[in-house]
Automatic annotation (TrEMBL):
Keywords, comma-separated and alphabetical: Cell outer membrane, Membrane, Receptor, TonB box, Transmembrane, Transmembrane beta strand, Transport
Statement: the UniProt record of this protein carries the keyword Protein biosynthesis: no
Lineage, opening ranks: Bacteria, Pseudomonadati, Bacteroidota, Cytophagia, Cytophagales
The protein's name in its UniProt record: TonB-dependent receptor
Pfam families: CarbopepD_reg_2, Plug, TonB_dep_Rec_b-barrel
A GO CC term attached to the entry: cell outer membrane
Family recorded in the similarity comment: Belongs to the TonB-dependent receptor family.
Presence of the UniProt keyword Transmembrane in the record: yes
Protein location: Cell outer membrane
Domain TonB-dependent receptor plug: 227-335
PROSITE patterns, sorted: TONB_DEPENDENT_REC_3
UniProt superkingdom: Bacteria
Species per Swiss-Prot/TrEMBL record: Lunatimonas lonarensis
Membrane topology category: Multi-pass membrane protein
Length: 1124
């Protein structure tokens, strides 16, 4: 791996400083007058005052205007209307307050920049001058729990200051403070206490155990449950985790945070398309994406970058059948429930955050220099019996050019994100909303992303029985894109595809093109900046998502709810390929392409919730009905013909081509769930859902998906209830059935398409079958068994959870290949075979204290084994195999799905070095090879190179993955360090396949410098060649380009400073914090590509294929958040 972190950090530091200065400027305006007297005492501050018969409140305002002190008091203890008269010139504030104290009987106590005002009590002493003398109190005490046991390590701080201490092993502490000061006593797992210091010198403080971890509410389908009552497998990601780093997608915030959930980026643009796999992959050709539900609305569209992550308050991941079965037909791959922020009763509060950062590609390909390429050309042409005259002279001006295309085609990109949130309300009505803007330059030139977001949530209690809640979000996204994720010279790939001996610009600064002197017939001498800079490629997406929910309490135990939600997505694009002539490259006519798509998704739910408690029994019952419809239409129009780049609209073109489609699908469902609890010890849940889908024929349209689970909270039993080690212990198990309907619409029908054909001497258009319909097509189903344990130790300081699952997907929805003579363009979809996923999930959370430092650790790791159990047979009884996508040039697949192996496992030839001198006869017989040509293992032993020598060599799916987050708090500082990791998988690096072959048609990687020659026989790099059998052999899809993808990545480091609260006492501002964040800082891996997670294809049949998608970037940002 190539890391030049110091160089990149130095480059970023200058730009980051600009952003830092901007942030500091605005914040310093707010705080310019708050820091001058932070360390000054009343004796150090001098003031001039001249007041006659003025009120005490007027005196306070005068002092506050002339100093940095603020008065705090209670109206019940201080009479602000009292009149005073004072004349003081350049006297200390201590002396002025002493004079006022004598006139008003007021008691003044300084705590940092605050002056607390009280009445003088009888036991308070005066000095000889009549000035009130406030002696410090040496306070001692002990911190205990409700059983009277000492609590070591509890923190005791004076509110508004940085002064504090910690209790010792016996729970005792000592602290010097003053009367009227407020103590904050806290310890992990207990509720914090606030105590006002009076005239006592000793304290006994009793902390009550905090049950919030058990009472924590988890969002499940159509409702919520206490975490302690959950009988299924559910993982939750909190708001603090989601907001811990700047992300553009909620999937990115989820990565590495929840056990059993693998998230990887698969998209090729800044909107960052991700794939989410929960507990492995169960479908072969169908979808493996989980169901995403936002505020009760199940989504169909995958444009998740249109959802503002800063609006999210929690993400709950339902993993086992007991948790997911309530969603039945779409829950086979798990469910992710997203809840946005809601309002709280109280005064309206605003929060504004801004982060400015810089992104840079953190890895690059190591390529040959121009001189190294010249030597490669000489060797390749000599091996191919061609003339080398063009390349023999190293002093020729052609070879003096060494262009770094990766440097020219990329940049350090500015990223800005602004968010204004507000919330508040009364006891009856609460509201919450936000507006936000994200402006993100791309690290590839001429690419950027701009997003605008809006959200408004309102909850209203009409009366004691009737309430209404509504959620509305809107977004607009505009993106300039670059082509990525392909075999050839597009996007970032073009920067390593083209040779370095072509100049990017001529002497006038204009783009140049092919270097004809160097290689007149080589196509890789193009200037990649032409395609990056000249075309216009725009993409716009507008989305409106929302719902309205009505709740009516029919009786105390029964609530009827109606929910109506909708999701509308409109996407449009504009691509213009301009007219130009640069060197030998000419585009005589411009081309305009305008795609449009519209998605409308609506859902309607009607539910009844019944809850009853009698004696030790607690029953919760849910009955519901749901209807959902999804409509999608799209069209694409391409026009060609303009010869003037100013006429770049579709209407200005001459020749046109158009295509489009429109589909609609629906789902009708009824469901039931029963939760039972006995004494909070014995828990059970049963769920049944019946779905009817338009994607299947009438005879197979409906499916029933039941599940059941039980749990035993052993910690509530008498023999454990008094345990000082175990706070909560629960064992649980579940079994159930869920479904998958994610295939194209109307696969059960045979559809016709318009097809041109020759009739007589004329070309006419008729109809031909597009597919072979399957009226017996039915639900793909998943049966899942889960057994888990949740345990909490040491009064909540350590929490551990473990799950074992066995997940079998059957009746797989598979597109089976048919012979070309079938006369259809689409393979028919049938129900065949089954896939097993089996694994273990472990989570460990600990909350620690080291002196005055708070420290918490969250760790999760998941192990998964994936295997195709069977995949059916063909018409003559042979086992079916499903190959993956063909790799260009060789036209061979790298993946194959076969019974007994993982889905999309790597299946290819095994590279065995190069043929050596003395092996000529064997090499010639084997594949007409010569010394220096690549050698592959003869696995079937027949002495020739054929498909029988292929074998399974790797797995694109990680055997384990996870993350670990350590957070530290000290006074007003906090530090978070987060790593994610993945292992036990391989990646096929197509960049090495194309640029590591030693073929001079394209640029070559630096590793090719070690190519075979008679003088260098020990290498494993084949000899260079241009065409012929050597080139064919070196292009074969083999494990030579299959690499270990294991990695550990420092995903995020965030350092935060919260300004002390006393700075804002009595001011509009309530809180202000700064954060310095680094993302994707370091990756430890042996993978030679840009990113081992870069699987360019969402289809599992071609998983683990790296076509060099839009590279992930290292981000360093500075943010500020102000609450007022």
């Amino acid at each position: 791996m190539k890391k030049n972190i110091l160089r990149q950090l130095l480059m970023l530091s200058k730009r980051l400083m600009y952003g830092f200065l901007i942030q500091v400027f605005f914040c310093s305006v707010l705080l310019a007058n708050t820091g001058n007297a932070q360390r000054k005492t009343l004796e150090e501050v001098k003031i001039s005052v001249n007041l006659t018969e003025k009120s005490l409140s007027q005196f306070f305002r005068l002092v506050e205007s002339k100093t940095d002190f603020r008065f705090t008091y209670s109206n019940r203890s201080v009479d602000l209307s009292q009149k005073i008269s004072i004349a003081a010139t350049d006297e200390t504030l201590y002396e002025v307050l002493a004079t006022v104290s004598k006139q008003t009987n007021a008691n003044f106590v300084q705590v940092n920049n605050n002056i607390h005002v009280n009445r003088i009590l009888a036991n308070q002493l005066y000095d000889g001058e009549g000035v009130l003398a406030f002696s410090n109190i040496q306070l001692t005490g002990v911190v205990v729990d409700t059983k009277g046991q000492p609590i070591p390590g509890a923190t005791i701080f004076i509110e508004g200051t940085s002064t504090g201490t910690a209790s010792d092993i016996d729970g005792r502490f000592s602290l010097q403070t003053q009367e009227g000061a407020v103590l904050i006593i806290s310890f992990i797992g207990y509720q914090s206490q606030r105590i006002v210091v009076s005239n006592q010198s000793t304290l006994t403080i009793t902390l009550v155990e905090d049950q919030s971890s058990l009472d924590e509410v988890v969002v499940v389908g159509y409702g919520t449950q206490r975490k302690a009552d959950i009988t299924g497998s559910v993982s939750s990601v909190s708001e603090s985790v989601i907001q811990s780093r700047p992300v553009a997608n909620f999937e990115d915030a989820l990565q590495g945070r929840a056990s059993g959930v693998q998230v990887r980026q698969t998209g090729g643009n800044l909107d960052g398309r991700f794939s989410i796999n929960i507990r492995g992959v169960g479908s072969v050709t169908g979808s493996n994406d989980p169901l995403i539900v936002v505020d009760g609305v199940p989504l169909f569209s995958s444009d998740f970058s249109t959802i503002n992550p800063k609006d999210i308050v929690s993400m709950d991941i339902l993993k086992d059948a007991s948790a997911t079965a309530i969603y039945g037909a779409r829950a086979a791959n798990g469910v992710v429930i997203i809840t946005t922020k809601k309002g709280k009763a109280g005064k309206t509060q605003f929060s504004f955050s801004s982060d400015i950062g810089f992104e840079e590609i953190f890895n690059r390909f190591d390529l040959m220099s121009t001189e190294e390429q010249r030597l490669l050309f000489v060797e390749a042409f000599r091996n191919s019996n061609r003339s080398t005259s063009v390349y023999d002279d190293p002093t020729h001006p052609t070879w003096q050019v060494d262009t770094d295309w990766q440097e020219l085609g990329t940049r350090t990109a500015l990223r800005q994100n602004y968010n204004l949130g507000f919330s508040g309300g009364t006891d009856k009505t609460q509201f919450s909303g936000s507006v936000a803007h994200l402006d993100r330059q791309g690290t590839i030139i001429n690419s950027d992303l701009k997003s605008w977001f809006f959200r408004l949530n309102i909850n209203t209690e009409i009366n004691e029985r009737f309430s209404v809640s509504s959620n509305l979000t809107g977004s607009h996204q505009k993106q300039n894109v670059q082509n990525n994720d392909s075999w050839g010279a597009t996007g970032y790939r073009s920067l390593i595809h083209n040779h370095s001996y072509t100049r990017p610009f001529d002497e006038n600064g204009n783009l140049t093109a092919i270097n004809t002197q160097a290689a007149p017939y080589f196509g890789a001498n193009d200037n990649p900046l032409i395609d990056l800079m000249l075309p216009t490629r725009e993409s716009d997406v507008t989305r409106v998502l929302g719902n309205v929910k009505f709740d009516y309490k029919l009786m105390d135990d029964l609530t009827i709810s109606a929910n109506l939600g909708g999701d509308i997505v409109h996407g449009k694009g504009y691509t213009y390929l301009p007219v130009y002539q640069i060197g030998l490259f000419v585009r005589p006519e411009g081309q305009v392409t305008v795609p449009n798509r519209r998605e409308i998704n609506w859902v309607s739910d009607l539910t009844a919730n019944y809850q009853k408690t009698f004696q030790q029994h607690d029953i919760k019952m849910l009955v519901g009905f749901s209807a959902q419809q999804f409509m999608f239409d799209n069209s694409t129009v391409t026009g060609i013909g303009t010869i003037n780049n100013s006429l770049n609209q579709l209407s200005n073109q001459i020749n046109f081509n158009a295509s489009g489609s429109r589909v609609s699908s629906g789902l009708v469902s009824s469901f039931f769930r029963l939760n039972y609890s006995n004494s909070d010890k014995y828990l059970a849940t049963t769920t049944v859902r019946r779905d009817g889908s338009s994607k299947f024929g009438e005879a197979r349209r409906y499916g029933v998906f039941p599940s059941g689970s039980i749990a035993w909270r052993i910690s509530e039993e008498g023999f454990l209830k008094s345990s000082e080690l175990i706070d909560d212990l629960k064992v649980r198990t579940s079994y159930g059935l869920t479904g998958n309907q994610e295939i194209g619409d109307f696969a059960f029908l045979t559809r016709a398409i318009a097809t041109p054909y020759v009739f007589g001497n004329s070309l006419v258009v008729g109809n031909s079958p597009q597919n072979i319909g399957n009226p017996d097509l039915q639900w793909e189903s998943t049966r899942q068994f889960d057994a888990g344990v949740d345990v909490s130790f040491f009064e909540g300081r350590i929490y551990f959870s473990a799950d074992y699952y066995n997940r079998t997907s059957q009746d797989l929805l598979i597109a089976t290949p048919v012979a070309l003579t079938a006369g259809v363009s689409q393979n028919p979809i049938v129900n065949l075979g089954s896939v097993l996923n089996e694994g273990i999930e472990l989570s460990l959370n600990s909350r620690n204290t080291v002196g005055k430092i708070g420290w918490s650790t969250n760790f999760n790791i998941s192990f998964n084994t994936n295997r195709v159990l069977n995949i059916g047979t063909n018409s003559i009884g042979e086992s079916l195999e499903i190959p993956g996508e063909l790799i260009p040039l060789s036209n061979q697949p790298a993946n194959l799905s076969r019974a007994g192996y993982p889905v999309g496992a790597f299946y290819m030839w095994v590279f065995d070095g190069v043929w050596q001198l003395g092996e000529e006869s064997i090499a010639r017989q084997w594949a007409d090879a010569v010394p220096g040509d690549p050698k592959y293992k003869d696995l079937n032993g027949n002495g020739i190179f054929d498909v029988g020598d292929k074998t399974f060599v790797g797995n694109p799916h990680p055997r384990f993955f996870g993350g670990i987050d350590n957070s530290f708090d000290y006074k007003n500082f906090s530090l978070s360090v987060f790593f994610d990791f993945s292992g036990g998988f391989q990646v096929y690096n197509t960049a090495r396949n194309l640029y590591g072959r030693g073929v001079p048609f394209v640029q070559n990687l630096a590793e090719v410098n070690d190519f075979w020659t008679p003088e260098n026989p020990s290498t494993r790099v084949p000899r260079p060649s241009q065409g012929g059998n050597t080139t064919n052999l070196v292009t074969m899809v083999s494990d030579r380009f299959l690499e270990n993808g294991d990695f550990i990545r420092l995903k995020n480091v965030a350092l935060t400073y919260n300004l002390p609260s006393y700075l804002f006492s009595g001011k509009t501002i309530e809180a202000l914090k700064f954060s310095l964040t680094g993302t994707n800082l370091i990756m430890f891996t042996n993978y030679s590509g840009l990113d081992p997670e870069a699987s360019s294809r969402a289809s599992l049949l071609s998983a683990g294929i790296d076509y060099t998608p839009y590279p992930q970037a290292r981000l360093v940002s500075l943010s500020a958040q102000i609450t007022f």
